[in-house]
Amino acid sequence: MKGTGRLTDDLAAYLRDRIISGEIAGGTALAEANLAHEYDVARPTARAAIEILARDGLVQRKPNVPAVVSTITSEELPEILALLETSEMIALDLILENDPDLRPLRRELAHSTYSLLDQLVQASGSERLASLHRRLTYELILARVNQPIQIVDDGGERHELVASLLQQDADAARAALTSIQGMRKESLGAIKAAHEHPR
Q: Buried (b) or exposed (e) across 3-17, using 16+ Cβ within 10 A?
């Protein structure tokens, strides 16, 4: 049973990577039987992997039809962004209130801004916020699959955010997070413009 769970997680991770890289395009059907055959796994394993992807917002499921890879439009970006910003600010407040272990957050400084923000929300200790944030982040990634624009950040704001949290400096932490969110918004403005005015 443990091996089956690991196989399900591995299949879901592999499919997730292919979806967020754009290798499996939005709108593509993912039929359980086809996945089971293609990856040489049992159909329940394929079904469980699709369920994981659906929980992450990467596929949409409807009764009696194959799951379909989600498509995110530029019109959806403002709502996704607003929800991300709200969840991150709530997470920040929870961290400042509860003073959790921030070592995992410090390790993310060497990685992308997206992974740092994801770890910030995880550090809050709220499973609901973490699940919501993960799903919204994947939706944001899906929106930029064909426009691989990164958040322009030299790492200074990320370091400031973590240092402020370690020092319990609420004002500085909020200012750093707001700055990071502003940079993300700028990068998404470029994506939205590319969608609206394709070359």
A: eeeebbeebbeebbe
